[in-house]
Design goal:
This protein has 279 residues and is of the alpha/beta class. The chain folds into two domains: 172 residues, HUPs (Rossmann fold, 3-Layer(aba) Sandwich), CATH 3.40.50.620; 89 residues, Pantoate-beta-alanine ligase, C-terminal domain (Pantoate--beta-alanine Ligase, Chain: A,domain 2, 2-Layer Sandwich), CATH 3.30.1300. Helices cover 41% and strands 20% of the residues. The protein is built from twelve helices and nine strands. The chain has a six-stranded parallel beta sheet, sandwiched between helices. The chain has a three-stranded antiparallel beta sheet with strand order 7-8-9, covered by helices on one side. A hairpin with a 2-residue loop joins strand 8 and strand 9. The N and C termini lie far apart (41 Å).
Amino acid sequence: MKIVNSIKELKAYLAEEKRNNKQVGFVPTMGALHDGHLSLVKCCVENNDVCVVSIFVNPTQFNDKHDLETYPRTLEKDCSLLEPVGCDYVFAPSVEEMYPEPDTRVFDFGLVSAVMEGARRPGHFNGVAQIVSKLFYAVEPDNAYFGEKDFQQIAVIRAMVEQLNIPVNIVACPILREEDGLAMSSRNVRLTPEQRQKAPLIARTLKESTTFAPEKSVQEVIDFVINTINADPVMRVEYYEIVDGYTLKSIQNWSDTTYPIGCITVYCGEVRLIDNMKY
């Protein structure tokens, strides 16, 4: 496994791989890797000849300076996890390498980037589009792998790929959960022991709501989820919306879509956790 810090060096290695007709798969990450990330890497390794993983905490997608500063950075540990699962190249650039000058591009993806996370984290998805497009230009992968925990982000990246006409296949991989149901996330390490004990309430409530969803109205299901989670003093729902999984438009009735997805963001103490569930 090679660790590469410059775009030029990475391009040289991958050009050689492509000359040998190797198919390149790519997993972009911000590091602090866990089993959820590793499941993406394993999928990438299984389905491609070459696996590239990027580790880069992207400043342009953080609208909260404190969140950027406290985001865990564990490069050495990350690399020790990647080698055994078959990663070939780790791309770990500096901020200066990725942004030699400010990226002033402003994207418009319409509704998919304006609702939910987009409404509450201004500029977040623009920053995501900036860095993922830069990474795609650097790696030029055949396939790129993203976790469904970031459901809205995948919709934004698909829109970006279409808009910029980038020839890459976007592969969405299922959410990986802890044994108690909590969606795996790099932010979980910031939970106190008490908060970590409480956090699985999110997934448990979502799952319970799917059992009576068809009989209850969409609004009744939303109210149940929000009220159940907010009843715990450690937890505060920022939003819970049930949307069409293709357009991300909020639905009023179950008949509005064939692909309803419930998307939630919850503050557990000061830690912001996201999850989603298919209905």
